[in-house]
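Board notes, transcribed. Complex of a protein with iron/sulfur cluster.
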Amino acid sequence: MAKAWYPVIDYEKCIECGACIEKCKHGVYDQSKAPTPVVENPDNCLYGCHGCGNICPSGAISYVGEEPTSGDSCSCSCSCDNDGGYKGC
Ligand code: SF4
Ligand code: SF4
């Protein structure tokens, strides 16, 4: 079974800019709710991807499955700019 990985929004911090919804190309967020981020399809999220979290201006996105000491390698296939500088995913 694949390890769980999906974004969790801290609505206390979120300013509803909609950037995360625009960023994700995998249908994780409910487009009809934009610009309010609603995680509709967590199973579509790519393990290790930080695409939406990295562009969130208010640091409102964390990830289920992320270990506090995890590195910044990326195994996703979207066009995120993750911390590791890997642009090929
Ligand atoms: S982590 Fe990546 S795949 Fe998952 S919701 Fe964010 S941008 Fe989409
Ligand atoms: S990018 Fe961050 S602040 Fe903007 S809608 Fe998404 S969670 Fe909220």
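Residues 7, 23-24, 26, 28, 45-46, 49-52, 76, 78, 80 surround iron/sulfur cluster (ligand 1) (CB under 6 Å). Strands lie at 6-9, 61-64.
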